[in-house]
Automatic annotation (TrEMBL):
A biological process term (GO) from this entry: galactolipid biosynthetic process
Organism in which the protein naturally occurs: Ensete ventricosum
Subcellular location: Plastid, Chloroplast outer membrane
EC number: 2.4.1.241
Glycosyl transferase family domain boundaries: 214-317
Protein name: Digalactosyldiacylglycerol synthase 2, chloroplastic
InterPro entries: DGDG1/2 (IPR044525), Glyco_trans_1 (IPR001296)
């Protein structure tokens, strides 16, 4: 239920629905033992067909979106150390050549750190990267974080240069990257906008639209805003003595977070994670979201769509939300306290039609097509033709250097010892027998083919 899982699904659905393109969503397949670490409520899938059926059912039931697009899976494993899913083998082999026209790499740096195989730019005519995660901020919080962040910054830039024609950064909270533009190309599940309309109608009828107070929802790991929230509440327990805040989430740090928050002299209640569109959240008036590691916070957009007030940090990751009157930003701890108390005592401002549209996936898809130059890419394909011999140009020289860099990365990423030094999961150059069996893959001269 994280933004990096849900948003690519909506992007695929709306590109197929609104732009009338043939779209294929390619998502990771995890073996059951890894599924237990990742999926909430002990959800697990015994086959790709079962997983695909769940995704499509969720899209229709939870979002009421009907769209025709393909879904295929690539082999992957879960890294406990990185708390992240990483590809296994050359995932470009998962995509048939006849489908390889435009690739949208959701988190391109993540997908290329350990990529060994065919170059994305060789496989596809156009490669667009979408930067979801502020990895540098996460790394800085680890041991020797400044050194790691320095190295990661240059590795990310190098890989983006090699593998992407164009990059879309959701906000300036991410690192500056070659060939990049800044644009929030995410929207919200339309069900959230429906909730906002219903809450506005309740208020119009003289009823209390938001009978509950404040809450926070997010994956329960310290770096997802819980540490910042703990600091704010701890430092101002006297001023916020009457505050009741409910926390919702699952994650690797759940036990430690529960123990730490229980020591506060405040009304803090902690519950298991739930889908944000769940009716349980409709009555809350204020979302407190102090996270500064997000690039564009999905839950903030969803809360605004539901007509709630959001209290968040004045940070580049929240720049897009400044246009909404219900988004209140703080620069200091004292301002946080003042805004929180005021929000609990006031009514949210009704969303205008323009604000609703800006939060929608229809608008997000329009922004994406423009920011990624997708129409230009399709025109280039139609007009492409062989070019006569020309003396070597600066562009040719740049391409030669880029190809040499790609060759170097491909060589290093093919050495098991080097991969492990840089943090890859051991023995992931090729899928193991369990993944092969579950995905129906067979090996032939080190290449992978779909078995069905």
């Amino acid at each position: 239920m994280t933004g990096t899982a849900v948003n690519p699904l909506f992007r695929a659905a709306y590109l197929a629905k609104d732009c009338d393109w043939e779209v294929t969503l390619v998502i990771p397949w995890l073996s059951v033992k890894d599924q237990l670490f990742v999926y909430p409520d002990k959800i697990n899938f015994s086959s790709t067909e079962e997983h695909e059926a769940y995704v499509r059912r969720w899209l229709q039931e939870k979002a009421d979106v009907v769209s025709v697009f393909n879904i295929i899976f690539y082999p992957a494993k879960f890294s406990k150390e990185k708390r992240s899913i990483l590809p296994v083998g050359d995932i470009t082999e998962t995509i048939p050549d006849e489908m390889a026209e435009i690739a949208i790499l959701e988190e391109p740096e993540h997908l290329t750190w350990y990529h060994h195989g065919r170059r994305w730019k060789t496989k596809f005519q156009r490669v667009i990267g979408v930067i979801h995660t502020n990895y540098l901020e996460y790394v800085k919080r680890e041991k020797n974080g400044q050194i790691q962040a320095f190295l990661l910054k240059y590795i990310n830039s190098w890989l983006i240069q090699i593998y992407c024609h164009k990059v879309v950064r959701l906000s300036s909270a991410t690192q500056d990257l070659p060939r990049s533009t800044i644009c929030n190309v995410h929207g919200v599940n339309p069900k959230f906008l429906e909730v906002g309309k219903m809450r506005h109608e309740l208020k119009h009828e003289g009823q209390i639209a938001f009978p509950k107070g404040a809450y926070f929802i997010g994956k329960m790991i310290w770096s997802k805003g819980y540490r910042e929230l703990l600091q704010l509440l701890s430092d101002h327990q006297n001023e916020l003595s009457d505050l009741q805040v409910d926390l919702y989430g699952n994650g690797e740090d759940s036990d430690e977070i529960k123990r730490t928050f229980s020591k506060l002299n405040l009304g803090v209640r902690i519950y298991p994670g739930r889908d944000h569109v769940d009716s349980l959240f409709h009555d809350y008036k204020v979302l407190i979201n102090p996270s500064t590691t997000d690039v564009v916070c999905t839950t903030t957009a969803e809360a605004l769509a539901m007509g709630k007030i959001v209290i968040c940090a004045n940070h580049p990751s929240n720049e897009f939300f400044k246009q909404f009157p219900n988004c209140h930003m703080y620069n200091t701890n004292n301002k946080f306290v003042k805004l929180t108390l005021a929000a609990l005592a006031e009514d949210p401002v009704p969303l205008t039609d323009d604000h609703r549209h800006a939060l929608s996936w229809e608008a997000a898809t329009e922004r994406f097509v423009e920011a990624a130059d997708l129409n230009e890419a399709t025109q280039e394909k139609a007009l492409s033709s062989p070019t006569p011999f020309m003396p070597i140009s600066s562009d040719d020289w740049s391409r030669s250097v880029e190809e040499a860099s790609a060759y170097l990365h491909n060589t290093v990423s093919g050495i098991e010892a080097a991969r492990c030094v840089f943090g890859a999961i051991p023995e992931t150059l090729q899928p193991d027998e369990q993944l092969r069996k579950e995905l129906g893959l067979v090996s032939s001269e080190h290449k992978l083919f779909l078995g069905h």
